[in-house]
Amino acid sequence: MEINWNYLLEFVKIRGRITRKTYILRVxxxxxxxxxxLLLFLAIAFVEGFLAEPGxxxxxxxxxxxxxxxxxxxxxxxFIVTFAQEIKRLHDMNSSGLWLILRFIPFISMIxxxxxxxxxxxVGPNNYGDDPKNRIQEEPKKKYPTVL
Length: 148
What we know:
- This protein is mainly α.
- Helices cover 57% and strands 0% of the residues.
- The chain has one domain.
């Protein structure tokens, strides 16, 4: 089985735009993967409980250190992917990725996340790329017919 690295890199790139649907599906995918990782760490801890001998300080210390390193790597990757997806979603609304700072302000962060989910992106190309839905911005209709 060959890994498609270009597809995986799409999750950490901050250039471009993504639609609401893509954003929501990627949020759900992150939650699902997080749940699987949690189950994996619980299963490893359960097995470690059976393997450890009472008073085996070295085994417990090494096991805890390995778990800490693996969980730290997962958390760092999780937040990089999360922030990259939010920046792309902000780009779809023709906003700077710096608006990501709102995520860290209590109560405002809820409004910010709802905005990412419910606000439609810019129709047509904007400062951050082409429309991912391939919509074309319509010309404004003239109020008065032209006279020849």
